[in-house]
Input
Amino acid sequence: MLKSGITIRSNWKIIRESASPIFSNYPLVQHNNIHRQEAAAAGGNCGHRQLSTTMHQASTNSNGTSRGKLVTLDNMNPHLKTMEYAVRGPLVIRATQIEKELSQGAKKPFKDVIKANIGDAHAMGQKPITFIREVLSLVSNPNLIDKVNYASDVKLKAKSILAGCKGGSAGSYSDSVGIEIIRKHAAEYIQRRDGGITADPDDIILCAGASEGIRACLKLFQNEDGSNPAVLIPIPQYPLYSASLAEYHLEQVGYYLDEARDWALDIGELERSLKEAKATCNPRAIVVINPGNPTGQVLTRENIEKIIKFAFEEKLFIFADEVYQDNIYAPGSKFYSFKKVMMEMGHPYSSMELASFFSTSKGYMGECGLRGGYSEIVNIDPHVKAMLLKSISAKLCPTVLGQATMDCVVDPPKPGDASYDLFIKEKTQVLDSLATRAKMVADAFNAISGIKCNPVQGAMYAFPKIEIPKKAIEVAKEKKLQPDAFYAFELLEYTGICIVPGSGFGQYPGTYHFRTTILPQPELLAVMLQKFKNFHIEFLKKYE
Output
């Protein structure tokens, strides 16, 4: 039987490599414990091994005497040291450095860096939705409302948002949970999406991207009573979860998705993972990402029903990460919200505690930098809800422009509105293009010997499995890198393509993967995939 494994969390140490000709081009490389990512891939069985590093740095007082720094790696919050976030890790640091080198005239085998490591649609060339940006321009500068030739519904939307702002200005603080009219629109959106199932605006909390909503809810499970609370997360997973669990000193319990069945979630695997975890910790919640990140799968309704029944039987709070609900591409795939399925299952499931999350950063919008999102908190104890709202109030409020962006998403132009035709045209073009690119990426990788990629049913990523020759694995081990991280660094140095190694998300032991977005525009994506093919062929030859 497969064991969950122990998550060994160590510090990141940035070192300069110069001994090896293979790494002579890598000024910045992550120096890992060789087993750390492999153990993290198993999701952890609630063990923490914290490696302490002593660093004495001198500072000078006004009288010229020296003393040690007041905050050091030895006495700082240890949980921050255990955090790791692969999506913005050492590969991205190196990619940014390469961009600077290129701008200074350095000669490389490529002219530009392609950052396929993160789901940032606009950075990869996607154009903003006109309706959203016109509304935001008026919300930002109300003086323009009577001066610009925008559609009437654009102006009405801006006025509606401004009417909810204190002083009629987006520069004022909003309520901590967000502007009331926007929460009302979000509830109406959810009710339409779920076929009429009631949504309460008081259950909606607007947040600075879904990430902040997720982190706020995870904090509810921190406990100093010695019960060792834990959260089940999928493997592979989005590193936000492992990083946040480490920061909040919550234990990570990983359950593997089934790659052989297009990354399906198997109830037997959930049962195995939970049973092993209970020996050392107290699992209290389960995270489900649908559509999947990094795996791109879309759960069937039957699968969701089984997960809900499992969570009910095991008394687990459900985190439903549904930020990619608009990104469904594969024929036959359909998005079902956990709330809709749970409510339609009736008693006793309809009374379960659930937090679901949505964002303006994904979908057809891609407005990552504006940081708009919401959480819907269902069936939560009123006293706990009061504590959650108190915690959120300490952050004052999410950005008002992010809230305004969310309002454009949950209350978009309707048939007959002046902006409707252009809005639907732009939205459809974005989603159709993403569907084309999803198939393009999977087909291209499956045509390369040594790479296998499941269909990208939804979301914005592919997570192909790669074969890495034994010789390359040995070289990686010498350099204290995971094999897929070594592969990714080589790819970056020779092609300019920045991806994220699968070990940053977790993967089944003995397998190697990488995550790439499908976001480069079609012409650039075709170039990227051809570069990838050429590199992979040469990599296999080099290390065969």
